[in-house]
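EI: anyone free to look at a 353-residue chain?
SC: sure, send it
EI:
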Amino acid sequence: MAVIHQFTPVLSYGDAISDSILELQSILRSAGHESEVFVEQAHPKVAHLCHPFVRYRPAPDHLLILHFSIGSDINVFVWLSPGRKVLVYHNITPHTYFEQVHPLLAAQCLLGRYQLRLFRDACVLALADSEFNRRELDAYGIAPNAVFPIPVRFEKFDRADLRRDLMDLYRDGRTNWLFVGRVIPNKRVDALIRAFGVYQRYYNPRSRLIVAGTTQGFERYRAGLLHLARSLGLSDVVLTDHVTLDELVTLYRLADVFVTLSEHEGFCVPLLEAMHCRVPVVAYAAGAMPETLRGGGVVLQTQDPYVVAEAVHTLMTNARLRARVLQNQDRALQYYARYPYADMFLRYINAVI
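SC: here you go
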C-alpha cells in the first residue's frame, strides 16, 4: 500500500478542519495505507496525534496531502518536497478584513494567496470543501479539482453532557439568538448586534444574543463589539469566548434561532451543527453558506438589520413557517448523513497514487 501523509499549519482541538484531518487519516489507515499528520503547531490535547513537519523525510513515491487555508512555511515545504501533491482547499479569508485589527494575520492571508499560485502546476488533484471554494481553484488555474465536503460527525455532540448551570442561567423565557464561530471581522458580528438591537427594541425586549467563539488575538475587535452594544443601549448581549464541547451543545439546545451574517465562508460547519440540534437558521447569502444549507434555513440577500430582525420575528411567531424550515433543514442534513465520505475520498486518492 501507499505512503500518504497529511500536512497542515495547525492541528487544533475540537476544530472542524482538524477533526476532518483525523477522520481522513482513519480512512486512509483503514484502507491499508501508511498515513501520518505533520504540522507547524498543535494544540497540547492533540499533539500526540501528529508530528512536527521538519521531521518528515521526503520520498518521491509518497503522496502529500496539504490542507490549505493560510500562508505558512509548511505550504512551501510541501511544494518543494518530492512526491505527488493533493491540495485540500479550505479557502483563505480576504486579508482586508484584518488589516486594522490584526496586521499579522492580514499578512498571512495575503501570503496564502501568493503561495496558492505555486500549486497551479504542482498538484495532481485539488479538493475543495464547496463549489464556492472550487471556483476559486478554477480562478487560480489549479486543476484537476473536485468538491469534497468536510466530513462532519455528530457522535460527539450526541454524547455531550448538558451543562446544568448554563441551562439554569439562560432558560428564562427570553428568545435566544445564537451565533457560533470565531469572533473576527469577516463574521460581521457587528452587523449581527445591530440586527439584534432592532429585534430587541421593536419586536421582543425579552431576548438575548449569545456569541459563542474565541476572541483570542482579536481583543480590540471584541472591545469594539461590546462598545457597540452599549452605545445601542442593548441588554443581554453575551460574548462567551472559547467554549467546551459540553458548553457548545448546551448553547445549541438553548437557542431559539441561529443567526449568521458572515460575509466570507468557505463552508461554515456551525450551520450543520445548528441543523443537527434542530435550531432554525437565518443566514446571509454569502460565500458557501447557501450551498452548505442545501435549501434549509432562511437565506437572506441583505444584512439590513430591519430585514434580519423581521425575518427572525416571523420565524419565531409563525409556527407553520418554523416547522417547514426545520423540515427543510432535516432534509439537507440527510444529504450529509448519506454522503459516502470514505468511498469518495478513496476513489479520489486511488486515482492519483
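EI: Residues 158-337 form a domain with the Rossmann fold fold (CATH 3.40.50.2000).
SC: 👍
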